[in-house]
Amino acid sequence: MEVPERGRRAEAPWKKLSKETATKRARATRRNRLHVPYGDGEGENLDIYFPEQVSEASPFCVFFHGGYWQSGSKDTSAFMVNPLTAQGVAVVIVAYDIAPKGTLDQMVDQVTRSIVYIQKQYPRNEGIYLCGHSAGAHLAAMMLLADWTKHAVAPNLRGFFLISGIYDLEPIVFTSQNGPLLMTLEDARRNGPQQLLEAALTQPVDPACHVLVIVGQHDSPEFSRQSREFYQGPQDHQPFIQQIPSEHLLQVRQGPAASRSCLALFSTQTLCRGGWNASFEELHDVDHFEIIWKLTQDDYVLTQMILRTIFQEP
């Protein structure tokens, strides 16, 4: 998902590194298997980066890129590879068919099958941790309530890192961003983590599985709202949603002047109310892009959160 830049300022060295060379450096310095097919489709492949001591018993962090389901690529998304593999975590970057080639139903199915592939290939893994950014956080969140029975495998899911995601898709139906997706209201509800959470009677994921909902201090109001409400539910007010075409970003507008065709429908069920092992974090002084780009840094707060969760450190 695209967001406007926050004013003019000099670009930090880590930002330039993240955008231009993170994946190239990861491929040059880490043991890897690239473009591994997890299905028969042309776009159904993934990259696996291994720690120095390769072991099938490693924990695996599986990343789904963002881009409003219509841009982005695994080939430019290896931000976290070097810091995580240096600590013994294998990292998987997944490709999926973005719109207009892929529909939301197809993307969710592809993400599901990529996880099944990892579990079957590395059955002795020490846990599979799903990480998604923006649209990728939506796809990761869909796995919270996935039905694995038809795949004859139960992935060893131990944690979710949902970064600056969107969990209620209905407002998007009424915006120009839906052009490539061709999403109907029925599609949005069927593929809406918030709606699925509301309808869920049980928690298929291990209750010990930790779900971290993460947003940046300078994320847009809509990303912040959806993240908070997926975690703990709506506040006292319910804002309307308005599309700002020039910025390609959903923003919040309150009051009677807001377009009622874009009213967001909030559910009462949330991660907290559903009893999930969940937490919410707002990261200081980062925007929608910086929050993920900075994962190239060993000492970045989110890098450390991910590692502490994986290794069950306080």
From TrEMBL:
Keyword check for Hydrolase: yes
Origin superkingdom: Eukaryota
One Pfam family it belongs to: BD-FAE
Basic and acidic residues: compositionally biased ranges: 1-23
Alphabetical UniProt keywords: Hydrolase
The keyword Hydrolase appears for this protein: yes
Chain ranges of the BD-FAE-like domain: 46-146
InterPro entries: AB_hydrolase_fold (IPR029058), BD-FAE-like_dom (IPR049492), GDXG_lipolytic_enzyme (IPR050300)
Protein name, as recorded: Kynurenine formamidase isoform X2
Region (Disordered): 1-28
UniProt gene name: AFMID
